[in-house]
Amino acid sequence: MQITHIPTPSHEEVLRVTDTATGLVGFIAIHSTALGPAAGGLRMKPYASEEAALTDALRLSHGMTFKNAAAGLPLGGGKAVILGDPACDKTETMLAAFAGAIAALKGRYWTAEDMGMSPEDMAVIARGTEFVAGLADGPFASGDPSPITARGIFNAIRCTARHRFGSASLSGRKVAVQGLGHVGWDLAAQLHAAGAALIVADIDPARCDAAASRFGAAIAPVDRILGVEADILAPCAIGGILNAETIPALKVAAVAGGANNQLATPADGDALHRRGILYAPDYVANAGGIVNVATEILRIRDRAGFVKEKLAEAEASLDAILTRAALRGVSPHKLADEIVLTRMQRRPAA
Hints:
Strand 12 (254-255), helix 7 and strand 13 (278-279) form a beta-alpha-beta unit. The chain is α/β, with parallel strands linked by helices and 350 residues long. The protein folds into two domains: 2-64 and 74-126, Leucine Dehydrogenase, chain A, domain 1 (Rossmann fold); 146-287 and 315-343, NAD(P)-binding Rossmann-like Domain (Rossmann fold, 3-Layer(aba) Sandwich). Helix 1 crosses helix 11, helix 4 (146-165) crosses helix 5 and helix 4 runs parallel beside helix 10. Helices cover 42% and strands 16% of the residues.
């Protein structure tokens, strides 16, 4: 295994990790440890290039700093990515090699499950380093964070609906869900139970068919989901989908979902605001997963109580952000960023 440090002014530390024997090529990005050790999941996907993978790691780790700070967790922001198709390229020896790189950071970065990874994969990594969470077994095991993430997003959608429509009820509301992975599927189930009418899209047609059968969902092509008429758009797939090209085509009154880094640039938050589309800042809405993982990192014994408390705090925080943003006449993402930066300036004493 070879570890190369990549100088990156925006981040505290960035590593390129390779291992010829296993075909491993990946990156670990530590954005900030101002509030505590960096925490963020490990993602594996068939990136088009190393540059694309590194860019994703940098964006995601920056987002984790803001997510952890917004959730009031004593954790910084980090992220790791591996290039490859998890369905056919991932091996235990590859994960073991990557575990060695995480171990070398000696607790500056904690990893967990993300796209292309599972609790079983985390167990493999845990053989080579103690700095891993999202495990299925153990005294502080938190398991798959997806259901908790989905619950937090569901709460955020209800909160956003109350601010945009005057009622938190989702009965009869049309919600477009982009992405039916673990989080998107759990969210769709909760929305359906609350009486929402669903429009769904996913790269896997079988998932869409299952949602149509289970939830009575309408199916939209992947390349058209961002243009369907709905009350709320819930992005639950890749980031950067709210941009100069897609925002003018949106036919929704609000956006609240689980994808990280939904805004391609901060200016896109202002563009949504000018169009009168209420935006729930993604790192506030989707914090449930890291809250769940944090119980493992922080060795919280009452996991259920901690998660319940933090989810309630996240909903209250979003409510305050949307209220204050409306009073100031600004996009909610600006106010959310201000709150996070203020918290980081009040970092705990070393």
